[in-house]
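Key idea: predict the complex, not the pieces.
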Amino acid sequence: MAAINLSKMNQEEVIQAVIDHGGAGITKCIQCNACASVCPVAKAGFPLFGRLLFRKLQTGHYEEIIEDASSWACQACNRCTEICPRDAKPFEIVFAFRRMQAGELAISTSAFTPLMSLHATGHAVYSETSQELREQVGLPPVPVTSIADEKAQKEIQTLLDNGPMGELGIF
Amino acid sequence: MEKCGIYLGCNIPFKAPDIEQSFNKVFPKLGVELVDLEGATCCPAWGTAPSFDIDTWLAISGRNINIAEEKDVDIMTGCNSCFGVMSEAKHMIDHDAAKRKKLNENLALIDRKFKGNSDVFHVSHVLYDRIGLEKIKESLKYTLKELKIAVQPGCHILWPTEVMEVKEKNSFFPTILKELCEVLEADVPHYSALNACCGMGAMRSTDQARSFGLFKTKLVNMKEEIDPDMIVTTCSSCYLQFDGAQKNLRESGEIDFEIPVFYYTQLLALCMGFDPKNVAAISATPRDQIIQKIQSEARLIKQEA
Amino acid sequence: MAKVGVYVCHCGSNIGGVVDVEAVRKHAETLPDVTISRQNLFMCSDPGQEIIRQDIRDGLVDKVVVAACTPRTHEPIFRKVLEGEGLNKFFFEMANIRDQDSWVHAHDHDGATAKAKKIVDSAVAKAKNLMPLEDKYVDVTQAALVIGGGVAGIFSALELANMGHKVYLVEKDPSIGGVMAQLDKTFPTNDCSACILTPVMVDAGTHPNIELLTYSEIESVEGYIGNFDVKIRKKQAYVDWKKCTGCGDCADACPVRTPNEYNAGLDNRSAAYIHFPQAVPKKAVIDMTSCINCGGRKIGSETRISKKTGKPILAPCERACPAGAIDRSKAVDPEGEILDVKIGTIVVATGYKVMEKDNFKSLAPDSPNVLTALQLERLISATGPTGGKFLRPSDGEKPKTISFLSCVGSRDEKHHTYCSRVCCMYMIKQAKLLKEKYADLNIYMHFMDVRTPGKDFDEYYTSAMDMGIRFVRGRVGGIDMLPGDKLKIMAYDADLAQNIEVESDLVVLATAIELQDNIKPLAQKLSLTLDGSGFFKELHPKLKPVETAVEGVFLAGCCQGPKDIPDTVAQAKGAAAAAAVPLAQKRVKIDPTISEIDREKCSGCGICEPLCPYGAITMVAVNGSHPRARIEMTQCKGCGVCTTACPSAAIELHGYSEAQIMAQITALTL
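Result:
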């Protein structure tokens, strides 16, 4: 791979964006690699996990990595946050990057279904077959959650529509 | 009777309602009245609002917690992800005045106000910390003597410890679920991958092959090190992975064994004598045999005169 | 009319690069009572000082204001200039336009210049009102106290004793030696720790000028430099040390098993025990917290006679002692004995401890095969629990693979943010010692980075690579417990860019160095402060590394911060030299900028007494019963708390009188 000319990378701007999206620990990472040693994303073989993602961001990479889906494999297990010696809260940085990707709709199409379902029913996961299953075990066909509650659905729609997610044109 | 708001989430009511039924059976028997949280929505799942905008995440979690506040009860979740999402949200709301202000601005749009007087608990926390092992022991009809369990606590209940109301003594070597199983008189040996990730959730929807790879490593570790009679979890996501993905691995020839999987309260309900048709009826990996074995004459606990 | 000279310093570009020095100088010229105003690149330089001298000699000035840096470092220099020209040296005032102005307002040149003028206004206003003051002196008691008998304390004590001073060496354990006495070998020469330390311990134990007080603790410290009154508690040993020969028969006879501190808890000792084989003094003690009072022989109980044998019923320890040093019927005070000593100067050398493994939950602390590095040190020592045989604690098998983890508790915001400085080197040492002895042992060293700043250190490290010791860059995030008491290290090899796992028989944690437990009460007794890292704070990190904010109290060794043995010995000798200065001078100067009570104005209300942080104020009966506050000048530090609190305005802080401070405030608010 050709050398990267760091003097031409926009480090400050990328770091600031990460901070603005909830990843204030980005400047603290010292590449000790503790997070990577226990990260499910790393162990499962995704290319862009913890320490490497943080180094890319610290050195101003953004356009180059925005389409990478690794961050969406983060399980939010927070084991990294528990052990990070710099208290950089690696999970929060991964999610900050996710939010930067999401803001540009750089997400997989499979992510849209739960979002639309959340907006419509209040539940990210829902299937019609559930009614049958519920009755099979002696429960009423629908639970008392937002699924059967129009007021609740209106409330969640208000919350979603009035935030930045409402401007993405997903719903 | 102690009251607790039962927060169902999505997976339990729509994919594994027999877990929901097991809550309905075991908690009243243990002296906890479950209070419905009408109109509760998704927590919201990690891949939704938390991946887009923190304030929207806090608004949705805050609304769910607020439903419990209105009923003057704490929240109990049966899903680790819901527990993680709402615990982190609550921690942020409690410790960041600006976020809390923004939250209440958002909730004002739907005529709600976050007060902060309901805490978030997990089913296993309520069982272990508020009900206690002794009371569980007294409620049992069948024993699990000489049955071997591999426990799967799941990750969102372990980390970050900073945000949790009830903490493990050592979150890297958790014992709460082990103790909950041991009170059923089962054998719960340690296996080295105890705290490893099952691969469910965001990873599975992003890349199923890699998710299954991670899952297989863990499942095989359980099998090789302790060869359990069953796998027991207190996470509905882990449950779906261990039960469902295990079938996938078997069908694709990746594994040649079968280990039945239970959500803990399903197993507890069976040990209390409840009908498996209600509390343990839906699974991809068969468990009829083990259920029969559990609820057999030979396992009846003799009541002291 | 005062004749005030103002001298504005550029301090190179420190001040001159921000503040318009010429504008400040010009401004000063316009102030009333200012007779002369000058500027110079470095006022503290010899030519700079000469300008002031000349102006004094020419009769142009009798009060001097230097607008420059901090009085903390530079006030003494300029006071000396005044003194040299026959002026009272307290006719000097410093205007700090660097630390408090140019450094903090580096980007606001106009604002900084305006502020500099204000600071000079204030200093000039005070200078006009300065009064002459005289230094005072007190005699110095000819004895030093060294607290802590590790390698730092031993060397400080020997150094002072060799200069001819009387030294009390106080150690809380039964023997001197400290952590160094627990080490097997030392880096980077691999010489045996006991071989180099034991002779020095003996020197300290036999030196005619050293009074060794082991198994003793500091009870209280009162007084001030040159005149400390120290109470030392000699803990109750329950063994008559005058008779004890250190034979160890009592320890052999004692049936109790309790964790052995000397072997870092890896094995057990008895309740009656000798600290370690090379102990100085080699005396037994009975640890009453674990003693089970065999045969009902509680301390001070009457001796019963056996009906069967007609002989007295004795505890095994009593029976075993051939010297008759243990007599449990004697009612001794469990609190021990208090010694009162008068001390001139004190060296604090209380050392450190290593963090216990229980603090590190992700690293399988419950496994018996996870050890701290200090435990490994004992495991490979000839005087250790296995007699130097390298065996796994879980089953006594010889390990095939061993993993070392660095920075455990160090460089970690959840524990200590500092680098413990010695871990990289001692881990390499331990690895090399093991590899030399067991060539087929697989050794993995997990580092964040290897830090080897020291003479011959990096060569020591690279030679370890040549021996086949494997270095992995990447902090270990977790350890899984495998069947058969093995451990799986989870790491990420930064250079391989790959997750790695290592199956090990033994894991060694290089846990951080930290201050001893229960050190805070001692710090309070000595009025010492701790720094951000939790160690004792030196007076200045570069120029006063062994001095403290308390005059006459000095620091040596790891209680001041992590350091290796060479640095510890160097600092111990430095602290001894510094502590010897007041002893050699035989009297010490007391700064006159302290508070004084006007007895006529004092109402005796007593408000000031509890407020004084140095305990310098006492209420003394005057004319029979009427109490009046009195300030002990040697204890007063001139903080001014009493002065501001006195409702009768009866307390004056010399050098900061009300008139002076009001003049400053007026100048600032004009």
